[in-house]
Amino acid sequence: MESSVCPFCHLSVPSSELQWHANSHFEDEDKEANDMELGNQIQIASSSGSTDVVSISSLIGLQTRSNFYHVKDGLISLLRNCLELEARHNSSVTILSGYVDHFQSLPSVDVGWGCGWRNIQMLSSHLLAHRKEARKVLFGESGFVPDIAFLQRWLEIAWESGFDPPGAQHFNCKIYGTNHRIGTTECASLFRSFGLRARVVDFGPKESELLYLSVPGSTLGQPVKQRNAVRVSGPMDKYVHRQQGLNKGRHFCHSLHNGKSDNSKGKSEGPQVLIDWVWNYFSDKGLTISGSSQVVVSDRAPLYFQHDGHSRTIIGIQVKHQKNGTNQFNLLILDPSDVSPTHGTVALERSLKTNVGWQKLIKRGVHTLKKPQYQLCYIDPGIASGEELNELKTINSIFFEL
User: Where is coiled-coil annotated (predicted)?
Assistant: First the structure.
């Protein structure tokens, strides 16, 4: 790939990214100035013993738009075109979320620790584009996705407001300016603090059930009852309130019962539970699979997808009907850690526009789900208030056995 040298930092970058990279230096100057001002306010407030370290009004005024590569035609639109072309040659059904921007980790900024924040940014880009009620409450009605530093500050405000006390305790209520990794519960806490109905779902082996969360009120889970809280340090999220589901029934998609899954036996049976759940989520049980090929855009938001060591964003799911009567599933995923010239947003845009190689960048089959535990965060429509908002301060989840 042809490369060029940045005239400001003398770094060699792909020629197609040179203009965007060079412009980012000027954006970084504004960002550094705002970060310095925010840091000064934090020091002043901390020394005075203020419990509200920085007022929300000050944060709204200081926050800056996150720097990312904007795809002119929109990634989802480009992906839909490719999927429709693909569907002409096979019997498949694909369900996509609406508009989503790809926020990738940036070298020297957040590589190795920022995936959780980038996934929050991807979910935020969708919510701001598709949900009017979310746009009115997110980030002080700024209308844009803030950079990581200000998302960190919003999370601190959530903790200060009483959301997820065990999580706040684990981080000592401080995360601004750090490179601490975050997980699904931090994602849920941040969105819940704005009144959004963020829900958490756990998938894991039955023997680990006591270590998970379980949330009442979810539209997709099973009825639950209270149980004693358990403090654990697991590979997912740490130190959270936990409850147990009365029924751990698998959430199979009824429209798939006439076809056999090629992932229905042996070790692959577990991951299929997660796949079925994701299918039901995006279809909302309202789509019946037929023999015809189609691509459908759902009104569901993307999913925050966590496993041990990494998190990504699920933007849709595809099922292909095989000639032998089985169904082959693919999760459609945006990965924030794809930062190389051959896997970044620019490369993804190019592959979608040319309809070449995009499958390797986005599709993930059931066979890739090799982790023993997974966790999802999804966001139901509407804005909570009053007692419901107060209840959202306790982070729980629904448990499904893999």
Answer: none
